[in-house]
Write a structure and sequence with these properties.
Structural class: alpha+beta
Number of strands: 18
Distance between the termini: 13 Å
Strand content: 15-25%
Length: 458
């Protein structure tokens, strides 16, 4: 089976592939808003019909929330599971969009043709790159060079409440040698990256309570403990002067980077000051002695995401508040147990409470970091395939964010994930005027076709 023939067909069929993507983009599959429940179901039905037309055994699977789409190919070869999500974020504020978010169009941005619509990059355009790659192989040879299962979720943008139960109930059906996930982006313009490690997340909300009511600061100031003062001291103690997090046991079990991977990262030429410049900053604030990419990809963080208490309205009110609040998130790396760290953090905060003050905790989620075992041959095959397609050689990279599904695939299905996507940092995902470069869509299809071809090589 000739890869060249498949790539030629992709090039010739690009306009038709784009129109099929437009059909999907016109469906308002906003999963977090109950008003769009019918639209989410419509998107699932559309995808199942497309996959059935390509010869997959495809079905829409109900869940307590929005449906999943599962499709099985009948071909032989290495077995891979492809994951994407077809739901999208809300479009608010609508007035900041330059056009209807669900009326896709190709327009130019800084001289580059882009597809403009909600979901263009996250994740409809990305998942369609894989489906169109399968279409090209099927059109040329009547079959795929690998055994492919496709799994499409309809709740990713609303917290994936049905995902874990669905994976547990259907584990035997969904297990494969490895998962392919197309919900990430290029490392830089023209430079593809394969994410091999993802940071986990721990989120905590704390409330420090002092007096039973708000107090007059003239009558009680100086003699009564102010919970804002207590909270500020706790938050200030999170880091030392070198950026090291002070929660006991926080760094236990964290491995150092493998020398080969660190060399790849160093070779990417990341400039932390240039990275910070566009947001008005210039000095990295993480652990001293770590490179910028290490800080973002392979080191844990502790950040205060919100703090409030007392009077914050117009004018002034000389109040000594009863309560002070903060929301704190920790990005975690391989080796860290989020549940154990939650206990350590709470014990550490409790130990800093003075007399007359108490603290309450509210949890907002905890998920472990993911680190992929790149010894599986498909990782290097994917890297080679992307390097063949894009101007620059692909690299194994990290990701500062969290993609929980990759962790669930590992813990529930027992398989690693190859995370390769073709979005760009300026795609404005989750924001008004979301876009996906036409080149990203085109070369993304060609990239997955190359990956499938590499699988056929054995």
């Amino acid at each position: 089976m000739s890869l060249d023939a498949v790539l030629t067909r992709i090039d010739q069929d690009l306009d038709a592939a784009t129109e099929r993507l437009f059909d999907l983009l016109r469906i308002q599959s906003i999963s977090t808003d109950p008003a769009f429940e019918g639209e989410v179901a419509k998107a699932a039905d559309w995808l199942a019909a497309e996959l059935t037309g390509l010869g997959f055994d495809a079905s829409v699977r109900p869940t307590p929330g929005h449906p999943m789409v599962v499709a099985h190919g009948a071909d032989d070869g290495p077995h891979v599971l492809f994951y994407g999500h077809y739901d999208v974020q809300p479009v608010d504020p609508l007035e900041l969009w330059n056009r209807d978010p669900f009326d896709p169009v190709i327009e130019e941005q800084n001289g580059v043709p882009v597809i403009r619509a909600r979901g263009a990059a996250d994740d409809k355009g990305q998942l369609m790159t894989f489906i169109e790659a399968c279409r090209a192989w099927k059109a040329e040879f009547g079959k795929l060079p690998a055994k492919v299962t496709i799994f499409l979720e309809g709740e990713e943008e609303s917290g994936s409440p049905s995902l874990v139960p669905f994976l547990e109930e259907n584990a035997d059906e969904l297990k494969a040698e490895v998962a392919l996930i197309c919900d990430t982006g290029l490392y830089a313009d023209g430079v593809p990256g394969i994410v091999t490690q993802l940071r986990g997340m721990l989120q905590e909300e704390i409330t420090v309570t002092g007096p039973r009511i708000d107090l007059h600061s003239g009558m009680f100031g100086g003699v009564a403990m102010n919970p804002i003062r207590v909270l500020n001291r706790v938050l200030a103690n999170l880091h030392d002067d070198q950026g090291v997090i002070q929660v006991p046991g926080f760094y236990d079990g964290i491995p150092e980077l493998e020398p080969e991977l660190k060399a790849q990262w160093d070779g990417l030429g990341f400039d932390a000051e240039a990275f910070l410049g566009p947001v008005g900053l210039s000095h990295p604030a993480g652990e001293a002695g770590r490179t910028g990419l290490e800080m973002i990809w392979s080191r844990p963080t502790a950040e205060v995401n919100g703090i409030w208490g007392g009077y914050t309205g117009a004018g002034f009110k000389t109040v000594l508040p009863s309560e002070a609040h903060a929301k704190i998130s920790f990005r975690l790396v391989a080796g860290q147990d989020p549940l154990r760290l939650r206990e350590n953090f709470r014990d550490w905060v409790l130990a800093q409470m003075p007399p007359d003050c108490s603290v309450d905790f509210k949890e907002h989620g905890a998920s472990p970091a993911g680190m992929m075992d790149t010894s599986h041959p498909i990782f290097e095959k994917t890297r080679e395939a992307l390097s063949d397609e894009w101007p620059a050689e692909a690299a194994f990279i990290g990701c500062g964010g969290s993609i929980p599904v990759a962790g669930y695939f590992k813990t529930i299905l027992g398989m690693d994930s190859v995370l390769a996507g073709f979005g760009k940092d300026d795609d404005a995902i989750h924001s008004p005027n979301e876009k996906y470069d036409v080149e990203s869509f085109h070369k993304g299809i060609r990239s997955w076709a190359r990956v499938l071809g590499k699988l056929a090589d054995g």
